[in-house]
Amino acid sequence: MMKSFFRTYMPFAKAGTQQMMAYKVNFIFHLIGEIMSCFIMFFIWKAVFTSTDGKTFMGFTMNDMIVYIFISFMTGYLSYSDGAFVLGEEIRDGSVSMRLIKPCSFDMCFLFQEIGNRVISYGIIFVPIVAGVEIYRYFLMGSVQFNVGNFIMFFISLQFAYLINFYFNIIYGFLAFYLKNLWGTTLIKDVIVNFLSGATIPLAFMPFALQTFLTYLPFSSLSYTPVMIYMGMYTWDKILFSMALQIFWIFAFWGISKLIWRSAIRRICVQGG
Amino acid sequence: MRRALRLHRIFISQHMKRLMEYKLDFTMGALGLFISQVIQLLFLGIIFSQIPNLKGWSFNEILFIYGFSLIPKGIDHLLFDNLWMIGYQIVNKGEFDKYLTRPINSLFYVTVENFQVDAFGELIMGIVLVAYSVVQLLSHIVWYRIFVLLLIVPFAVLIFTSLKIITASIAFWTKQSGHVIHMVYMVNDFAKYPVTIYNNVVKVIITYILPFAFTAYYPAGYFLRGQDGLFSVVGTILISVTLFGISLFVWNKGVKSYESAGS
């Protein structure tokens, strides 16, 4: 069972890796462009901390802020998923019929292709950023700040965040094909998700009621949860609770995406071909 | 020149017709850019709720610099957005042939072909912020500087456009350069905040190498505090003209080595 599952889907992962290798120069240029915003944030926070009297800003030290900026950037980048956007287009132009005749499930094809992709992006992003942050913290604090337990939980939580994002974006992909303009709607979606997930502004800076409310929405599971775990801001109770919440959202979005897929397929009518 | 302007008008009116057909597209793009600016401002608001000033700059002054930076950026985005397509696909797919076979300058044709109304999301936000912060800072404003500032805007736009032309031209040799345009373009975000918050490496880069600081901080600093008048005003003009000259040179070189896609 397990063996045939992997025999079916491993080629997709391999194709994903090859695709990524072919475009790795583009990927690196894109990454440099995106990481610029982290450095802007870094300098803004440095200026903020030289302009305040205290050592902390709403409970965060400079050290915390640096970890927050870079780890939340990395989390956002590594949990991003857009592999399934083509699905809406395929349903519209009928080429989805090719998926229906293949003996594999639609979400697993996308998932494995993206996993193949991500092998490369982990190599390019994960190691340099984690190493950079830890070396910086070491020189700032004079001692090793790295916590293996937190790091392992962070890594698992990051994978959960990716899966939530994956199924969330499959659902968005279905929606987007009704909304047509992908550039505009995707921009709006990304901006709002980044805001609600705490990637733009740490949720801890928001009013308490809003903060509590956002913790229960699926978005905080995408970025805030893993980052807080990495930073050691959560107790073990809280880590387990928020990871349970992540698992809940994975199943919720997985279920919804399956439902939409089924009803879309029932209604579809592919002409000719 | 007159012919060019007339053609430009025709292109825009053509584009407006297309636009009326897709009202939703326009609203979505502009709305997206608008919301992303609002959230950035919320972030600045939170910071300033805790500190009186940022390295000596008040909240209203920061709002002015931020808002002003969006205006040249928005104008370039509105009028000359098609250059991105050179980098991403026009050259790669061999579609550039079209521009070479028309009796107008290829660079002019490419840049004016598209009229990107999403840019209103940035432009409106920029104008609102500038107007709001000027009202707040009313007693500090030296009025003749407004004319200087208006004079600078087209040159600031030219800095954006020239850097896009240079990076887009790379595609003539490498087939694709969209990601290089993206990388260079993103540097402009540094110019939205006072250059004084950055370290020397960043300062040198955004002043002399990718001179985005002249699109926002230097002119805004001159307007708000009269600082470095000569450097800020004449510097912006000189740099933009020089950069535009370089961009024309690179573009023409690039067009010469353009090879269409096979078949």
Q: What does this protein look like?
A:
The complex is a heterodimer of chains A (273) and B (263). Chain A is an all-alpha fold and 273 residues long. Chain A has one domain. Chain A has eleven helices and two strands. Chain A has helices at residues 2-22, 24-51, 62-79, 86-93, 97-100, 106-141, 148-179, 182-196, 208-216, 224-231, 236-267, and strands at residues 56-57, 60-61. In chain A, strands 1-2 form a two-stranded antiparallel sheet. In chain A, strand 1 and strand 2 (60-61) form a beta hairpin. In chain A, helix 3 packs antiparallel against helix 6, helix 3 (62-79) crosses helix 10 (224-231) and helix 4 (86-93) runs parallel beside helix 7 (148-179). Chain A is globular, with a radius of gyration of 20 Å. The mean pLDDT of chain A is 85. By secondary structure, chain B is mostly helical. Chain B has one domain (2-256). In chain B, helix 2 (23-50) packs parallel to helix 7, helix 3 (59-79) packs across helix 11 (217-225) and helix 8 (144-174) packs antiparallel against helix 11. The two termini of chain B are 37 Å apart. In chain B, 43% of the residues are buried. Classes of the chains: A mainly alpha (273), B mainly alpha (263). The A-B interface holds A 25-27, 29-30, 32-34, 36-37, 39-40, 43-44, 46-48, 50-52, 57-58, 179-181, 183-185, 187-188, 191-192, 194-195, 200-201, 205 and B 22, 24-25, 27-33, 35-36, 39-40, 42-43, 46-47, 50-55, 118, 176, 178-180, 182-187, 189-190, 192-193, 197-199, 202.
Radius of gyration of chain A: 20 Å
What can be said about the biggest beta sheet of chain B? none
The count of helical stretches of chain B stands at 12
Distance N to C terminus of chain B = 37 Å
Short description:
With 273 residues, chain A is mainly alpha-helical. Chain A contains eleven helices and two strands; from the N terminus they run ααββααααααααα.
What's the SSE blueprint?
The complex is a heterodimer of chains A (273) and B (263).
Chain A: H1 2-22, H2 24-51, E1 56-57, E2 60-61, H3 62-79, H4 86-93, H5 97-100, H6 106-141, H7 148-179, H8 182-196, H9 208-216, H10 224-231, H11 236-267
Antiparallel strand pairs in A: 1-2
Chain B: H1 2-21, H2 23-50, H3 59-79, H4 83-90, H5 97-100, H6 106-113, H7 120-136, H8 144-174, H9 178-186, H10 200-209, H11 217-225, H12 229-256
